[in-house]
Amino acid sequence: MGASALAALSSALLGTLSAGPAHADEPSAGDQGLLLTVSGAGNTWSRGVRLNCPDVHGSHPHAAAACDALTWARGDLDALPGHPQACTREYDPMTATAIGTWRGVPVNWHKDFPNACTMDAATGPLFRF
Fold it and tell me: How many CA atoms lie within 13 A of 71 on its CB side?
C-alpha cells in the first residue's frame, strides 16, 4: 500500500473513530485528537489507535504517558523525549504516523524507523499499542 493510500485509509479511519455523541469531559469539537498508526515493511498497515488528551475513552493503552510526552514536546513529534535504549541493528522497517489535531493545531506526521526498538527509543509511549 503506497503512502497516499495509507494517508487516505488513516483519514477514513479518523473520521469513523471520531463519530459519536459529544460529552462534557471530552476534548473540544475543534480538537479531534490524533490517529496513530504503525505499519511494517512495504507500508502494510498493521495497527492503529486514536489518542485524545485526556484519553477519556481509554483507547490508548499508555494514554497518560503518551499525553505527557506530547505535552513535554509541545506537540512536536520530532521533539518527543523518547525512551533511550540499546537496539540491535536488525532491519525490519516500521513507519509511525500521526494524523489529526493536537490542541487545535493540525498534525500530519510520519517517520520511518529501521525497527520497532528504534521507533520506541525515539517516540517513547506514544506508539506503544
Answer: 9
Confidence of residue 29 (pLDDT cuts 50, 70, 90): low
Give the residue with greater pLDDT, 45 vs 18: 45
Neighbours of 70 (CB within 10 A): 24
C-alpha cell at 73: 514536546
- B/e letters for 28-44, b = 16+ CB within 10 Å, e = fewer, are eeebbbbbbbbbeeebe
pLDDT of res. 44 = 73
Q: Give the side-chain half-sphere CA count within 13 A for 111.
A: 18
Please give the grid coordinates belonging to residue 23. Answer: 460529552
